[in-house]
Amino acid sequence: YNFFPRKLKWSKTNLTYRIMNYTPDLSRAEVDRAFKKAFKVWSDVTPLNFTRIRSGIADIMISFGTKEHGDFYPFDGPSGLLAHAFPPGPDYGGDAHFDDDETWSDDSRGYSLFLVAAHEFGHSLGLEHSRDPGALMFPIYTYTGKTGFVLPDDDVQGIQELYGAGDRDPNPKHPKTPEKCDAELSLDAITELRGEMLIFKDRFFWRLHPQMVEAELVLLKSFWPELPNKIDAAYENPIKDLVFMFKGKKVWAMNGYDIIEGFPKKIYEMGFPKQMKRIDAAVHVKDTGRTLFFSGNKFWSYDEEKEVMETGYPRLIEEEFPGIGDRVDAVYQRNGYLYFFNGSLQFEYSIWSNRIVRVLHTNSIFWC
Amino acid sequence: IPIPLEDSHEFTEEDLQFAERYLRTHYDLRPNPADVMRKSANTLASKLREMQAFFGLEVTGKLNEETYELMQQPRCGVPDVGE
Lengths: 368, 83
Hints:
The complex is a heterodimer of chains A (368) and B (83).
Chain A: E1 14-19, H1 28-43, E2 49-52, E3 60-65, E4 81-85, E5 96-99, E6 104-105, E7 111-112, H2 113-125, H3 153-163, E8 189-193, E9 196-201, E10 204-208, E11 216-219, H4 220-223, E12 233-237, E13 242-247, E14 250-255, E15 258-259, E16 265-266, E17 281-285, E18 290-295, E19 298-303, E20 308-309, E21 315-316, H5 317-320, E22 330-334, E23 337-342, E24 345-350, E25 355-361
Parallel strand pairs in A: 1-2, 1-3, 3-5, 6-7
Antiparallel strand pairs in A: 4-5, 8-9, 9-10, 10-11, 12-13, 13-14, 14-15, 14-16, 17-18, 18-19, 19-20, 19-21, 22-23, 23-24, 24-25
Chain B: H1 13-27, H2 37-54, H3 65-71, E1 75-76
């Protein structure tokens, strides 16, 4: 997180706001609700209180405008700049302006007024942009879903350095952005995608290009807004140029960024038992054309060509792959080896000699 | 604007103006007094480096495709650095 120069902040905890005008994209009630919810994001984690006034000068004056709208920081038409706000202070200080050339909405149809307002009010309170791609104060817009927003930990740290903590935080578990070199790092899923490797953790994934050491951290929803905020397993079928992602009893098929028509489907439609609750890991083994699915202490083998589950499964993981433990978080295949991830360890398993040849730290996938 | 050789045909004049405007809005790039070409080139390269470092891109000081793509993403109008 970052602060404005001279660490500008309000010297009082009771702040007022006034909505000066409205956008035609939403009803007045929806706009009122979005702003109220956006202020609550910050009052939940600080001693700050926000009171709406309907006349006179408020600390935070909120307005919609287009192009040059009176502050010499013109907007730029649809997309690009969505909004801006001024750091705490008199007059313009704290004010927030929203570009009405954007389409404002309360879901993924347009830009979420709630999400953008929560970000702008962070500026109104004294936060600058954060470099943490998972932070609300990251400068680039990312739709993170219609409900269930929880202020990321980075933003909480920042605002509480300015104003201290409140005593009424309804969601004390604020999501942290994963550190790829954390010695205890564990993973949710791994898949190849057209030559890149995607490594999933919580609501993020790292994109690892074969030629590059630096992995790029991305929010899952910035690629696939329709997907849930966290997945259980993923694999690529390179022959069909499809990536399959699993969460609970659902499976999505993706061709690049696009979700295939008719998905999500239920995993039992692939031949799993109806009572199966989730898949922990999946990997397509090119040499055999089979995809292995791991759930609990068992695994299944799926014939991609015939599109059927092979008979004689499930089998116990411990029997087929002795030494990797009795569960798998994630798995991928490369150059004749399977890499099984279990907590902070990964097991390099030779398909040819059917045995573990190396045990590594999970974070060594990032050259840590 | 410094551009990698392999990307030199990628950008139109309009793209370059957009990139310069972006750096002015978000990285406090100062307008370039006509007679100080050398210095302005450094300022542009240093502002590009600042932006690439902020977003965790490869810091080259040159406008490559990845940097330009990121400039086009919808965002907040408040600067990322500077007063």
